[in-house]
Amino acid sequence: MHADEDTTVVVDHVYEPEGTGTCEDCGKPAHDPGMVGLTLAGEEESVSALMEPSQALVLAERLQRAASLVLESQEDAPDMEREAARYTAAAGRPE
Questions:
Q1: 87 lies in some domain
Q2: Domain-embedded: residue 73
Q3: Residue 18 confidence (pLDDT)
Q4: Are 2 and 23 within 8 A, CB to CB?
Q5: What is the pTM of this model?
Q6: Cα separation, 90 vs 82, whole angstroms
Q7: pLDDT in tens, 9-66
Q8: Which residues partner with 49 through β-bridges?
């Protein structure tokens, strides 16, 4: 995903069975299968992280919550008179 003209975000499912090689990021023996890789690459530098699935889910949830808050703050404020009229009309209907 291209975040802007200069920044790319890459999310990978990293799978390399144990004992078959070394990690390109940290140089240690291959990690357990099923790790999640995240790379933020700019024009001059990049940052990578290798996470367990549970850590990736926490990060994804926090990103989703932050984005939701930003989008909610951009919405128009509710029309209180219209909402009160709708509530009053709904309360007056027989069930």
A1: yes
A2: yes
A3: 59
A4: no
A5: 0.58
A6: 12
A7: 888 877 666 566 666 666 666 656 678 889 989 888 999 888 988 999 999 999 999 9
A8: 38
Amino acid, single-letter form, for residue 28: K
* Number of C-beta neighbours around residue 55 at 10 A: 14
- Please check the confidence at residue 95 and state whether its pLDDT lies above 70: no
- Tell me if 3 is assigned to some domain: no
Give the position of tokens 């933020």.
Answer: 40
**HSE-up of residue 54 (Cα within 13 Å, Cβ side):** 0
Residues 11, 40: Cα–Cα separation, whole Å: 9
Are 36 and 59 in contact, with CB atoms under 8 Å apart? no
| Domain ranges, residue 56 | 8-92
Q: Which amino acid is at 17?
A: P
Residue 1 counted as domain residue: no
| Sequential DSSP letters for the chain | -BSSSS-EEEEEEE---TTS-B-TTT-SBPPPTTEEEEEEE-SS-EEEEEE-HHHHHHHHHHHHHHHHHHHHHTSPPP-HHHHHHHHHHHHHS--
